[in-house]
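Class, discuss our next protein.
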Amino acid sequence: MSVSLKELVHYIDQLLDVGRFRDYCPNGLQVEGRGEVRRLVTGVTACQALLDAAVAAQADAIIVHHGYFWRGEAEPVVGMKRRRLAALLQHDISLLAYHLPLDAHPELGNNARLGALLGITDSQPLRADVADAVGNIGQLPEPRSAAGLVADIARLTGREPLHVGNAGELVQRIGWCTGAAQSYIQHAVAAGADLFLTGEASEPTVHIAREEGIHFIAAGHHATERYGVQALGAHLAEAFGLEHRFIDIDNPV
């Protein structure tokens, strides 16, 4: 089966409520390809390796979390940017990208999927005062050692996360936000979290965690953001009868 590109874009835009977000990049259709979509590839970042894999898979469209045209980037279409766009245009493949809307969706989003995979329940927004904020806070079913949670995250992501805190201490109230959300640690402190989980760490984050008495885990930007786009692709495949393949391009960050 297939769906028109126009219908697919409209459906996802509505599903993820893209108009609610003030983002750092355009959400939705970024590069237009052929008008009908039958084969869909999803991935985390629209790097050249993902584009080449999508070409080999004869994809009609690619959906990613990290697309193009970020605020503040150089505008000329030269070098790496030219090569990426040329690959899409030459093979008539559409590129769709959803950044904050894909982080925030309550069922298909990066945060929702990571929380579910870790068994976190009673999820609430980490910042209820901001309409388009991302990040969540919830509970583990019962208190457990920080070391046990770190081990679960390592098994899930396939990489050893950075943990700041006493491994033997018990944690239960968990704040989390995938990607590069280390600055949200202060919001997790204010919300009474025992532990804050994100993808990346900055130098000040370690000191904040130690001085505020909160556990901190950096589990990898790429590693924590693989799950939303997979869930979205699976949803679209079922909704429209599409062929869907998630392609994971390894990234150690």
Q: What stands out?
A: The radius of gyration is 19 Å. The first helix runs from residue 5 to 15. The longest strand covers residues 136-145. The chain has a mean pLDDT of 97.
